[in-house]
Structure formats: C-alpha cells, structure tokens
Design a protein that fits this description.
It is built from 11 helices and 8 strands. The chain is an alpha+beta fold and about 270 residues long. It starts with 6 loop residues before the first helix and ends in a 10-residue tail after the last helix.
C-alpha cells in the first residue's frame, strides 16, 4: 500500500497550517485588533489568500471583523474552545494562588508558562504592587524556546539532542533576536543547569529582566514554569537570588500537591 500522501491531502494540510497561522496572528494581538495588510505581512501570503482564510475563520466564529475599523479580533468560538480545553491545563488553576503569593511578596509580575513543541506560551500573569514593571510578556504570548527566562529554563530541562532540534526548528525566528546567538543560548543552558534556575538579563528587550524555574505536575499536560519579570534595577545586586528562593518555595508547593487537591492559603 502506498503510504505517500495524495496532492489533495497535502494541499488540505497546507491550507490548515496557513489558517492556523492567520488565526494565531489575530488572536495574539487580543483586543488590539489587526488590519488585513498587517496580517498579510505577518503571514507572508498573498492578499487574496489571506482574505479567503480570514473569511473562513470568520465563518466559523474563530475571528470577527469590526465593521467600523475593519480590524480583525478573536471571535467568540475561541473563548468556547478555550473553556473546553482548559481541563488539560489544570496547572493554571493549581498555580493561581502561588502566582498571587509571588506577586504579593515580590511586588513584581509573576508568570506561568508552558512549553508547547518548540515554543513558550504564557498562560497567566499576576501583577505585583511595584509601579516599575516589565510589560513584555502577556497571557497568550508565544516565543521560540530560549527567549526569556522561561524559554531558557525549558531548554535547560531538555536533552542536548532535543535542544539541538529546537534551535534548528527555530533558526528562522531566532534570527530576529541577534543577541541570542546559538553559542550564547548554549552558555545560558549550561548556566541554568548549574545554578538550577534561568536568569534573563535583558537578552530580548533591554532593561526587561527575569528569573524562572521549571515546574512539574501531572495536570500540566506539558512542561510548565514559574517566573518573575521586572525591570533591570529590581533584579540587580543579588536581589534575583531572593526571588529565586521565592519561586522555589512555590515550586515545591505545586509539585507536592496531589491531583484534585486544591491549594490553600491566602
């Protein structure tokens, strides 16, 4: 039996991939919205093709178009699908109180992320009370592994062979971050493995620093991480070590919980 895919099958797969890419571009901007010309630039497809995909997504309620601005926004079906998929990511509910405690004690932004294939996806963000904040990472944002503290932590938890595969798969996207060369990423992996946490010293955006640790729990569905993001001045002079200790405390809380157990405490 011939195992090769038919041209029709390949064409359908390519269409689906393109539609998902278009949807991710629109959804990634959340309430900001995006116009047709900007979608075309981001997905690098022709205008007619992009328009056809947008119409198909609109027909299924996955995105919608504002009649005045003509910009595209996430549709109601995205919300419904998210609710149905939420049970796979029980780590988000379990980590909720930990994020709140981290933000309250540190005064900075606490973040929960997961690794999906070769990407880091931010699930939750809890704001601290300090007025100086880093607003680079928001829920729903996706970045190639190695970008940011969580991305570095995820890489360090992988085998060298897996890291090589990830860097190769993300080569094109990583070119947009010239400060993150392959050699630098390998050095960061070695550093993270040695000290037990990832430390981002503004490698992506100048002045935006962060620390992260990996977290494991059966409900996560995929590798997860806890992170603290802040401005450079708040993570200098060894303060980042105090924040790492705080992350480690909450990591232990999450990993000690049994499936179905609810977190207690303020």
């Amino acid at each position: 039996m011939d195992s090769k895919e038919s041209p029709e099958s390949i064409s359908a797969s390519q269409t689906l991939d393109r539609a998902v890419h278009v949807m991710q571009v629109v959804v990634g901007l959340r309430n900001q919205g995006i116009g047709l010309s900007d979608v075309v630039k981001k997905v690098e497809l022709t205008k007619p093709t992009t328009r056809r995909l947008l119409l198909a997504l609109m027909g299924n309620g996955l995105i919608e178009q504002d009649p005045v601005s003509r910009k595209y926004f996430p549709g109601p079906e995205i919300y419904s699908l998210g609710l149905m998929a939420a049970h796979r990511f029980g780590i988000q509910r379990i980590a909720e109180r930990s994020l709140a405690r981290i933000a309250k004690v540190s005064g900075d932004s606490a973040l929960l992320s997961v690794r999906r294939d070769y990407e880091t996806v931010c699930l939750s963000r809890e704001e601290g009370h300090h007025p100086l904040r880093s607003h680079v990472l928001q829920p729903g944002d996706r970045h190639p592994l190695g970008c940011g503290a969580s991305g570095i932590a995820f890489l360090a938890a992988m085998s060298d062979e897996q890291i090589g595969e990830a860097l190769e798969a993300n080569a094109e996207r990583l070119r947009h971050y010239p400060q993150l060369s392959t050699d630098i990423l390998w050095d960061l992996v070695a550093e993270t493995r040695e000290q037990g946490y990832a430390f981002n010293r503004g490698f992506i955006f100048e002045g935006s620093w962060g620390v992260a640790v990996c977290v494991s729990h059966p409900t996560s569905g995929m590798p997860a991480s806890l992170a603290i993001a802040s401005v450079e001045s708040r993570l200098r002079n060894k303060r980042h070590e105090e924040l790492v200790a705080l992350l480690m405390e909450e990591k232990a809380v999450i990993e000690s919980m049994k499936i179905g157990e609810q977190v207690t405490g303020p």
